[in-house]
Amino acid sequence: MNEDERVCDSRFRTMYSMELVKCELLGRHPIHQGYVKGETIIWRPDQEYREWINTEKPKSMKKDKATDKQVGGDHYKNGKMQVFDVWDAFGLDPYEANAVKYLLRHRKKNGKEDLEKAIHYIQVIMEKNYDV
């Protein structure tokens, strides 16, 4: 049997039902195709399923949450929570949120300038809410 007649041995684990799908194409091909419950499943070679025992799921099977990552540096993340976790927990409005943001990042980013920005937002809050 030549290589063009050989059944592909690629497999794919579906993300939601976690069913194992085998490629049903013959020979070499740039993408894989299989079927599960009457549905056609297509996947790339970098999404192939391999046996992962006692390890994390591969990135192609994980759902990354936007709240799990920090874009553009680590000046907001302290290892426990993001600054927007604080905003959400306290139900802050945009002015309060920005005051907290600048206060929390001043040590790791712009120092005194960030403290001045936090103070400025607090002054705006006082003017808007307390006629100061």
Task: Detail the topology: elements first, then pairings.
Layout: E1 11-13, E2 20-22, E3 32-36, E4 39-43, H1 83-90, H2 94-105, H3 112-130
Antiparallel strand pairs: 1-2, 3-4
Written description of the protein model:
This protein is α+β, with helices and mostly antiparallel strands and 132 residues long. It is 30% helix and 12% strand. The protein folds into 2 domains: 47 residues, no CATH class; 65 residues, no CATH class. A hairpin with a 6-residue loop joins β1 and β2. The termini are far apart. About 5% of the residues have low confidence.
Number of extended strands: 4
> What is the number of independent domains?
2
- SSE order: EEEEHHH
Largest sheet: 2 strands, antiparallel
Q: What is the 3D shape?
A: rod-shaped
Low-confidence stretches: 52-57
Class from helix and strand fractions: alpha+beta
Descriptive keywords:
132 residues, alpha+beta, 2 domains, two-stranded antiparallel ribbon, 4 strands, 30% helix, rod-shaped
Task: Offer a quick outline of the entry.
The protein has three helices and four strands, in the order ββββααα. It is α+β, with helices and mostly antiparallel strands and 132 residues long.
